[in-house]
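TASK: fixed-backbone design
INPUT:
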């Protein structure tokens, strides 16, 4: 497994919050070249959790749909009790996967909004500090 030092070091501009490689000598967005305003960023902490939650929600829904089809496929026997059991299990799995995927979509959207609010509050506080 590669060490953390094997990955490129990422820095984040304190002024515009853009993250970029430490190989660049100035921020590609705002053009700032004062290195005192930068901090080293862990590349693993840049994982966009809202996208991970949305992708997991999609995957959960697809897995539930496939499991429902597999269970419904097994309802072709002569035993009607077994057929009902498989049909109920199939629709139960579909319902459970739908509820879980909607929950994951909601968490992803909530996280996206929280991050947006945090950025606005940070920009507001920086604006207030620069005006004082």
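OUTPUT:
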């Amino acid at each position: 497994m590669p060490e953390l030092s094997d990955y490129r070091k990422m820095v984040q501009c304190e002024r515009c919050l853009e993250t970029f490689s430490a190989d660049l000598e100035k921020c590609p967005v705002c053009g700032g070249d004062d290195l005192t305003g930068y901090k080293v960023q862990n590349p693993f902490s840049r994982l966009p959790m809202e996208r991970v939650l949305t992708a997991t929600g999609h995957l959960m829904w697809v897995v539930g749909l496939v499991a429902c089809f597999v269970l419904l496929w097994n309802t072709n026997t002569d035993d009607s009790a077994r057929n009902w059991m498989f049909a109920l299990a199939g629709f139960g799995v579909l319902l459970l996967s739908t509820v879980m995927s909607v929950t994951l979509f909601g968490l992803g959207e909530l996280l996206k909004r929280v991050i947006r609010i945090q950025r606005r509050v940070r920009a507001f506080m920086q604006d207030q500090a620069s005006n004082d």
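COMMENT: The beta strands are 10-13, 19-21, 38-41.
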